[in-house]
Amino acid sequence: MINDIFMAIGWLGMILIILAYYLLSTERLKSNQKTYHLLNGLGGVFTVISAFYIGFWPSVVLNVFWTLVAVFAITKIIQKRK
Predict the structure, then answer these.
(1) Distant-in-sequence contacts of 47-54, Cβ < 8 A, 24+ apart
(2) Do 46 and 10 contact (CB within 8 A), yes or no?
(3) CA-CA distance, 42 to 39, in Å (whole number)?
Protein backbone atom coordinates (compact mmCIF):
# COMPACT_ATOMS: atom_id res chain seq x y z
CA MET A 1 0.00 0.00 0.00
CA ILE A 2 2.70 2.53 0.98
CA ASN A 3 4.68 1.60 -2.16
CA ASP A 4 1.63 2.44 -4.27
CA ILE A 5 1.38 5.88 -2.67
CA PHE A 6 5.01 6.72 -3.44
CA MET A 7 4.63 5.32 -6.95
CA ALA A 8 1.58 7.54 -7.51
CA ILE A 9 3.51 10.57 -6.21
CA GLY A 10 6.29 9.80 -8.71
CA TRP A 11 3.84 9.44 -11.58
CA LEU A 12 2.20 12.74 -10.66
CA GLY A 13 5.59 14.45 -10.64
CA MET A 14 6.44 13.04 -14.04
CA ILE A 15 3.08 14.13 -15.45
CA LEU A 16 3.56 17.69 -14.15
CA ILE A 17 7.03 17.98 -15.71
CA ILE A 18 5.83 16.61 -19.05
CA LEU A 19 2.77 18.88 -18.93
CA ALA A 20 5.00 21.92 -18.34
CA TYR A 21 7.20 20.99 -21.28
CA TYR A 22 4.19 20.31 -23.52
CA LEU A 23 2.59 23.65 -22.65
CA LEU A 24 5.89 25.44 -23.30
CA SER A 25 6.45 23.62 -26.60
CA THR A 26 2.94 24.39 -27.84
CA GLU A 27 3.35 28.03 -26.77
CA ARG A 28 0.50 27.88 -24.27
CA LEU A 29 3.01 28.92 -21.62
CA LYS A 30 6.15 30.99 -21.84
CA SER A 31 9.40 30.31 -20.02
CA ASN A 32 9.03 33.56 -18.10
CA GLN A 33 5.70 32.58 -16.53
CA LYS A 34 5.39 31.44 -12.93
CA THR A 35 2.96 28.69 -13.95
CA TYR A 36 5.57 27.00 -16.10
CA HIS A 37 8.14 26.97 -13.31
CA LEU A 38 5.55 26.03 -10.70
CA LEU A 39 4.60 22.93 -12.69
CA ASN A 40 8.28 22.02 -13.06
CA GLY A 41 9.01 22.71 -9.39
CA LEU A 42 6.10 20.66 -8.09
CA GLY A 43 6.95 17.88 -10.52
CA GLY A 44 10.52 17.94 -9.23
CA VAL A 45 9.42 17.81 -5.59
CA PHE A 46 7.09 14.87 -6.22
CA THR A 47 9.71 12.91 -8.13
CA VAL A 48 12.28 13.61 -5.40
CA ILE A 49 9.89 12.19 -2.81
CA SER A 50 9.24 9.07 -4.87
CA ALA A 51 12.87 8.50 -5.87
CA PHE A 52 14.10 9.10 -2.33
CA TYR A 53 11.68 6.48 -1.01
CA ILE A 54 12.94 3.83 -3.42
CA GLY A 55 16.57 4.94 -3.10
CA PHE A 56 17.09 5.96 -6.74
CA TRP A 57 19.74 8.57 -5.98
CA PRO A 58 20.53 9.83 -9.51
CA SER A 59 16.89 10.83 -9.88
CA VAL A 60 16.87 12.42 -6.42
CA VAL A 61 19.88 14.60 -7.27
CA LEU A 62 18.56 15.52 -10.73
CA ASN A 63 15.17 16.53 -9.40
CA VAL A 64 16.55 18.46 -6.43
CA PHE A 65 18.41 20.63 -8.94
CA TRP A 66 15.33 20.73 -11.21
CA THR A 67 13.30 22.05 -8.29
CA LEU A 68 15.96 24.57 -7.25
CA VAL A 69 16.08 25.98 -10.78
CA ALA A 70 12.29 26.37 -10.72
CA VAL A 71 12.40 28.12 -7.34
CA PHE A 72 15.18 30.43 -8.57
CA ALA A 73 13.18 31.27 -11.71
CA ILE A 74 9.98 31.98 -9.76
CA THR A 75 11.91 34.21 -7.36
CA LYS A 76 13.44 36.09 -10.28
CA ILE A 77 10.02 36.56 -11.93
CA ILE A 78 8.51 37.87 -8.68
CA GLN A 79 11.40 40.28 -8.13
CA LYS A 80 11.14 41.58 -11.69
CA ARG A 81 7.47 42.41 -11.24
CA LYS A 82 8.11 44.54 -8.13
Answers:
(1) 47/10, 47/13, 47/14, 47/17, 48/13, 49/6, 49/9, 49/10, 49/13, 50/6, 50/7, 50/9, 50/10, 50/13, 51/10, 53/6, 54/6
(2) yes
(3) 5
Residues in the chain: 82
| CA separation for the pair 35, 12 (Å, rounded) | 16
56: left (phi over 0), alpha (psi -120 to 50) or beta: beta
Rounded percentage of the chain residues whose pLDDT exceeds 70: 100
Rounded-to-integer distance, Cα 60 and Cα 63, Å: 5
Read off the amino acid at residue 49. Answer: I
| Stated pTM of the model | 0.92
